[in-house]
Amino acid sequence: MKIAVCIKRVPDMDVRFKIGANGTSVDEAGLKFDISDFDGYAVEAALQIKEKANAGEVVVISLGADNVQETLRKAMSMGADRAVQLKHDAPVFDSFAIATALAAELSTGGYDLVMFGRMSIDTANQATGTMVAELLGLPIITAISKLDFDGGTVKARRELEGSYELVECPLPAIVTIDEGIARPRYPSLKGIMAAKKKPLETKPAQVGEQRYTLDKMELPAERAAGRIVGEGKDAVPELVRLLKEEAKVL
Amino acid sequence: MSNIFAFAETRGGELRRAALEAVTAARQTADQIGGEVRVLIAGAPGIAVHAAKLAAHGADIVLVVEHDAFTHYNPEALASTLAAGLANNYRAAFFSASAQGKDLAPRVAAKLKVGLASDVTEFAFSGDAVVAKHPGYTGKIVQTLTLKATPAIISLRPGAVLPKESPKAGTVQNIPSAGDPAASRVVVTDTVVGGGAKLDLGEAPVIISGGRGLKEAANFTLVEDLAAAFGNAAVGATRAVTDEGWRPHSDQIGQTGRLVSPDLYVACGISGAIQHLAGMRTSKTIVAINKDKEAPIFKIADYGIVGDVLEILPVLTEAVKAAKQGA
Q1: H-state helical runs in chain B
Q2: Full domain range(s) for residue A66
Q3: Which of A72, B22, B115, B266 could form a disulfide with B6 if both were Cys (CB 3.0 to 4.6 A apart)?
Q4: Is the CB of residue B308 less than 8 Å away from at least one CB of chain A?
């Protein structure tokens, strides 16, 4: 099976962010970057499909400035065969504009399966994979936690709120990956060495028109400092009184 | 005059709270900028029974699509039907940013080639633009967007707009699906509801959530008991707990799980890892019970009790039962 995995470079989230001087970006000073969480699961799931079949190819694709090459190399050090950078130096926020560029690249690749993380962990729109599917006219199953194949049929499990759906569609198809499918492997030293020699192609991104503008990024209002009602079970009556009389949720 | 659209989400033939949130948002918008509220509901024959509730929440017209092929969620047929309808003079369309809405809204936006504001917590219409706020970066940064294309497609974070009654006519119009709904390539073969008849995380105004402090899977009965005492509560968990297999993955609240904004969130034996806080920090009232008084959860909790969660929960459950009976 020929598989494409679309991945995004995102900052590590375990930090206190600062807003950049232009008011619409994150100050990148001191931040560490890696493959977006769900995209890492997608790479792992793709590699497992290839390893199980002992055949096929895994191609990783990322849109962005040259710093995404590091992210693509990371995916290749995990085991992806080759990489494509869709070069675009200015940040793009609109999922549809990004989807246009990815669809243009994917349409010529002859892929049986295209995978995405269910959303990027930074802009968190959960839309790009679906929009690519619409642009390419391919069936898509989103936010899946299990993936199997029965001949030319994709069989997947989609997580809902407290329940799940079993979903099928024919190949070629697009799937977006939720957590729980496979923990991404750590690249081995051998993998890291091999990745340096794997092909990484750079071509200009055909980004579409942006359908919305990002006006502002800001840190959320801090929650007002809470209070410790008390210690141990003796504090329960006071808590219940507060929930009833002050918060009015009981 | 352009109209305002809302999609009424159902599961297993039942109307979801998400539907009422979308209708309420549409009603509030129409009251502000004008136009009729038109709501679409699709399902197996008989789904029209929910039209009265949609009318009560502000639907002027309820568009009903009934077909056996809509018994389960049918994303391709729904997206085609919605796109065909929305091409006709709508200012905006509201979805829920639920699991279903996050699948459906981008399909519709892409078909119409218009902008999508995803997982929105606040919105305002001004002139020909919609300004929307959307938390990203695991809730650590709020992004403000302006959409100009029409219709503006907006998916609302569950809990961002609370269902409110505002009775209108809710005239039922039966409409056909665009194309043959039985011919969709993507087919949901089964919808498996976990945990019996309990409220789920997308619906419940109260969430009782458990972390590693509960020590073992069996102790989640204490969390379930408290949820039962509230009567309108769902049970959630941290990633540590779902990784351990104490609770199903679909119960996980956090950066990589569900994003929730209930009226009341009770964190039991949860230290407050960043990954978890990202999923629940927009809850309206937060209660934390944890033995470590330095735990980060206390920094965002409105009310905290320091102590052993296994000892406190049964007492709290009894107190909540008593309060509910007295109410």
Answers
A1: 17-33, 51-56, 75-86, 99-112, 220-230, 239-244, 274-280, 297-300, 309-326
A2: 2-204
A3: B22
A4: yes
On the question of a cis peptide bond just before residue A172, with omega within 30 degrees of 0, the verdict is yes
* Encoded tokens for B112: 């119409």
Burial of B203 from C-beta contacts in 10 A (0-12 / 13-18 / 19+):
buried
**Model ipTM value:** 0.94
Max CA pair span of chain A: 68
B206-326 to CATH, choices 3.40.30.10, 2.60.120.10, 3.40.50.1220, 3.20.20.150: 3.40.50.1220
Tell me, what amino acid is at A5? V
Number of structural domains found in chain A: 1
Query: Strands across the sheet with B264-268, in order?
Result: A227-231, B303-306, B285-290, B264-268, B206-210, B233-237
How far off is chain A from B102, nearest CA to CA, in Å? Answer: 7
Whole-number Å distance between alpha carbons of B117 and B109: 10
- Cβ(A1)–Cβ(A112) below 8 Å: yes
Copy the structure tokens of residue A127.
């839309």
3-state secondary structure of B315: helix
What is the C-alpha separation between A23 and A5, in angstroms, rounded?
32
Cβ within 8 Å, pair B299-A226:
yes
Mind listing the pLDDT tens digit for each residue in B145-192? 999 889 999 999 988 999 999 999 999 999 999 989 999 999 999 998
Q: Tell me, what CATH number does A47's domain have? A: 3.40.50.620
| B148 contacts chain A (CB < 8 A) | yes
The C-alpha of B169 sits at a distance from chain A's nearest C-alpha, in angstroms, of 31
**Alpha-carbon distance B224 to nearest alpha carbon in chain A (angstroms):** 14
The amino acid at B160: A
Largest CA distance in chain B: 60
Digit-coded pLDDT (tens) for B216-261: 999 999 999 999 999 889 999 999 999 999 998 888 999 888 888 8
Dihedral sign of CA atoms B251, B257, B258, B264 in order: positive
Q: H or E element: which one contains A244?
A: helix A236-245
B162 to chain A, any CB pair closer than 8 A? The answer is no
Name which of A212, A227, A250 is nearest B115 (Cβ-Cβ): A212
Residues B282/B121, Cβ–Cβ less than 8 Å: yes
Statement: B3-183 belongs to CATH 3.40.30.10 = no
- Phi/psi at A230 (5° precision): 170, -170
Where in the sequence of chain B do the CATH 3.40.50.620 domains occur? Answer: 3-183
Do you know the residue count of chain B? Answer: 327
